[in-house]
Write a structure and sequence with these properties.
Strand content: 5-15%
Order of helices and strands: EHEHEHEHEHEEHEHHHHHH
Strand order of the largest sheet: 3-2-1-4-5-6-7-8
Number of helices: 12
Largest sheet: 8 strands, mixed
Number of strands: 8
């Protein structure tokens, strides 16, 4: 695998900060070799103060200093932002995009056809180094490029390489998934309050229930249906609760949420 010698972040939002934190913590790169372009001066100052990164204002300077660039701006401004980099990107550059809905074809059109490209979709648990990321390489990306991307995203959680046609589905599942989980968490807490628990107690129990259940599933490697079956006794409390969820079409709604979010990802790139 090629060694990461420098990194340019185009945009300094939460996800870029999570990746900076993970890269530094994993000792992939020292903070003084990470350059950030961020239009919000307060945000840029915060990144400098908290992480010791370099601030850069000029796309040409950024491309001259760094061979690996991370595009981390909102998809709605992808064309406008990347067009400023296109004249300065060459075959020696690797551009990794974490912009939802922006395809490899879009990236090539906006940033020029010379740079090697990787499209990725991380999620917000990367902020606590527990993210899930899928990425897809462009036609000119090398195996070393993919290994480098994997090292970057593994530094903030877990990653896997997938065909690009699956990335919108990834966006609907793991990219948007934390929103569904937090909605369920809020409902679980409110359910505890409705049943008579003080809210702080309900919050603590609900948080550890979600955390423990996910950890058990990861550690055991067993199918979710098997794990569910182990806590679902005949005529017991859990099956009574699951019946209530099924009466509300809980599983169908979650499946539809993933599908609709994936479709929205495709629309953002259109």
């Amino acid at each position: 695998m090629s060694t990461l010698t420098s990194l340019a972040c185009i945009g300094g939002g939460q996800m870029a900060e999570a990746l900076i934190r993970g890269i530094v913590a994993a000792k992939l790169l020292a903070p003084e070799h990470i350059h950030v372009i961020e239009p919000n001066p307060e945000r840029l100052h915060s990144l400098q103060q908290n992480h010791g990164i370099q601030a850069t204002a000029d796309p040409a300077e950024l491309c001259a200093h760094c061979r690996v660039l991370l595009a981390a701006v909102k998809p709605q401004v992808a064309r406008q932002v990347l067009s400023a980099y296109a004249p300065h990107l060459g075959e020696g550059h690797l551009l990794i995009s974490i912009m939802a809905g922006i395809s490899l074809a879009d990236l090539s059109k906006y940033a020029g056809a010379k740079a090697r490209l990787i499209r990725a979709m991380p999620n917000t648990p990367a902020l606590v180094l527990a993210g899930a990321t899928a990425f897809s390489p462009g036609a000119s990306a090398t195996r070393d490029d993919c290994d480098l991307a994997r090292a970057i995203f593994d530094a903030v959680g877990a990653s896997l390489e997938l065909p690009e046609e699956q990335i919108d589905a990834v966006t609907g599942l793991s990219g948007s998934g934390p929103g569904y989980v937090f909605t369920f968490l809020e409902a679980l807490i409110d359910g505890g309050v409705l049943a008579g628990l003080p809210r702080p107690h309900a919050e603590k129990l609900a948080l550890h229930t979600l955390y423990g259940s996910a950890k058990l599933a990861l550690k055991s490697g067993e199918h979710a249906a098997v794990l569910k079956g182990r806590v679902t006794s005949p005529g017991g409390t859990t099956i009574a609760g699951i019946q209530a969820l099924e009466q509300g079409a809980f599983r169908g709604l979650v499946m539809e949420a993933v599908r609709k979010a994936g479709r929205r990802s495709a629309e953002l790139g259109g």
